[in-house]
Amino acid sequence: MVCGVTALGLIIYVKALHKESNVKGKTVSKTNPVEANVTMVGGNCFLAYWETEEESIGYVKYGSSPDTINLVGKNKEGFIYSTRHEIKVCDLTEPEYYVIIVSDGVPYGLNGVPIKVQRE
Q1: 84, 120 in Cβ contact below 8 A?
Q2: Cα 13 from chain centroid (whole Å)
């Protein structure tokens, strides 16, 4: 996993295995996010993007603190099966948000915690 900060905000890259396999006794799914990235855009929006090897329903959960992640952002077409997921959430008013990517019903963050993004 690689993490970087750019002028646009925090970018998270998640590298997952490209096939279902057994790693230390755990099954790795073909619907794990691959090269996920969450970044602020336009000052009051964040954009979450990731791909999966197989089609899955993807969305994000977010909130203004790690304890209040109760809002849902979805693809502009709704909850659809896809291998390419792009979700833009706008009209953000708080200075920072915490985001969880959900792929095929499984939540993903950065090292097991929500991804923090900050408004510019």
Answers
A1: no
A2: 10
Q: What confidence tens digit (pLDDT) does each residue in 81-103 have?
A: 999 999 999 999 999 999 999 99
CA distance 70 to 28: 27
Chain centroid to Cα 100, Å, comes to: 5
Q: Got the DSSP string for 85-109?
A: EEEEE----SSEEEEEEEETTEEE-
DSSP SS3 for 70? coil
- Residues 6 or more apart whose CB falls under 8 angstroms from that of 55 comprise 81, 82, 83
79 token code pair: 């909850």
Mean pLDDT for back-to-back runs of 10 residues, the chain (120 residues): 36 36 55 89 93 94 95 92 95 95 92 88
